[in-house]
Design brief:
Layout lengths: L1 H31 L3 E2 L11 E2 L2 H19 L1 H7 L2 H23 L4 H17 L20 H17 L7 H19 L3 H21 L8 H19 L5 H11 L1 H17 L5 H8 L7 H6 L5 H25 L2 H27 L4 H12 L2
Antiparallel strand pairs: 1-2
Helix pairs in contact: 1-2, 1-8, 2-8, 2-9, 4-5, 4-9, 5-6, 6-9, 6-11, 7-8, 7-9, 7-14, 8-9, 10-14, 10-15, 11-12, 11-15, 14-15
């Protein structure tokens, strides 16, 4: 484990340094090609911000992984089949290019989902698949094909992380925390490939946060957020392939609970909001972007943006701690209790934000809530 830990830390440091060094150049490039996010819509910043930071993050991760893979080639080759060595990089490339096109010239939502589905199919074809029979209370007799769950998980998590990119430092920080949890989990199970991959993600995100913390000088953009979300989704599957079925299902759900449960609740809220419209329009509304995510609702409480981000960081750390605890104990009932607890926490915070907005809570009341949850 010490050997794996050292290489994971090495990957982290290399990714951090490469990403940090590339950010000034990428920022100039984004301005040159006018890949800039301007205020308005779902954006809450006061001025235009370049949005190609994800390019530096992805290049930083790849550079670090290439160095570590070269040093550990015999170990790396033993842990990855030939099909995996081709399919996984190709899938990541598809998602990255999809995001890059969105950042520069735009892409239709339908084509974006289609490309993500193709990338997910490549991962499944490589053998990274979770069986529905592993789910609590279903048992081995449940015969639904595993690719359905895996496809929904990959596409869902990819977009859930993408939707986190709404406040300075939020998506990069939350991703780094979840990646750190997955790296610890992988180190504990002897999965060096996953540990190194997540270590490089942590390093790249930390290097990026140097320029993304409020006031942000650059954003991830879809090239970054989609690629990070996709990598978290597939690595969470790979991390659980070699362990007991209970932990295999519980750990990803718990570690990624905040973005996943928030996205599911947002979709339910959008569907319910259009209750008087035809079914087709209600389903379409589920995928329509708006400002109803957790961080948007917390903004409506009058909370400071930096404190919201730090609060969500703390919540993510707590959820990852629950995931690690469930993985160690490997108790199905306890894991289900943890999942319900996380869902309840996310629902409660969302309800608080909706409640404040619907009742037009006065400033004095918002200040009391702010003091109650975040201190003076």
């Amino acid at each position: 484990m010490i050997h794996s830990l050292l290489y994971t830390i090495a990957g982290l440091v290399i990714a951090l340094l490469v990403t940090s060094a590339l950010l000034p150049l990428i920022r100039k490039l984004a301005l040159a090609v006018r890949a800039v996010d301007y205020p308005g819509g779902r954006r809450v910043q006061a001025e235009g911000i370049p949005r190609l930071g994800g390019v530096a993050v992805v290049v930083g991760m790849l550079a670090a992984q290439a160095v570590v893979a070269t040093l550990l080639w015999h170990n790396w080759a033993a842990n990855l089949e030939p099909m995996e060595r081709v399919a996984i990089p190709l899938a990541l490339f598809i998602v990255f290019v999809c995001g890059l096109v969105e950042d520069t010239v735009g892409i239709s939502p339908l084509l974006r989902i289609l490309l993500q589905t193709v990338a997910a199919a490549l991962v499944i074809r490589a053998g990274w698949c979770v069986s529905l029979s592993s789910l609590p209370f279903l048992g081995p007799g449940f015969e639904t094909p595993c690719w359905i769950l895996t496809l929904l998980w990959i596409v869902g998590v990819t977009n859930a992380v993408n939707l986190l990119d709404g406040l300075d430092g939020l998506a990069g920080g939350v991703t780094a925390i979840i990646a750190a949890g997955l790296a610890i989990f992988a180190l504990g199970t002897g999965n060096i490939v996953t540990a190194v991959a997540m270590g490089t993600m942590v390093g790249a995100c930390l290097g990026f946060l140097r320029k993304n913390w409020a006031p942000a000088q650059i954003y991830l953009g879809d090239a970054g957020s989609l690629t990070l979300g996709f990598l978290l989704a597939i690595v969470s599957i790979h991390a659980s392939l070699k362990i007991s079925t209970v932990a295999a299902i519980l750990f990803p759900l718990l570690a990624l609970g905040l973005p996943v449960f928030d996205t599911l609740l947002v979709m339910a809220f959008r569907f319910r909001k259009k209750i008087r419209t035809p079914l087709v329009r209600r389903v379409a509304a589920v995928f329509h972007a708006d400002r109803s995510h957790l961080h948007h609702l917390m903004l409506r409480l009058g909370l400071d943006r930096k404190r919201i981000v730090v609060g969500i960081y703390a919540l993510t750390i707590a959820f990852c701690a629950l995931a690690l605890a469930a993985a160690v104990v490997r108790n199905t009932l306890l894991g289900v209790v943890f999942i319900l607890f996380e869902l309840a926490v996310v629902f409660a915070i969302r309800h608080l934000g909706n409640h404040a907005e619907l009742l037009h809570l006065p400033i004095a009341g918002r200040k009391k809530l702010k003091a109650l949850f975040f201190g003076q």
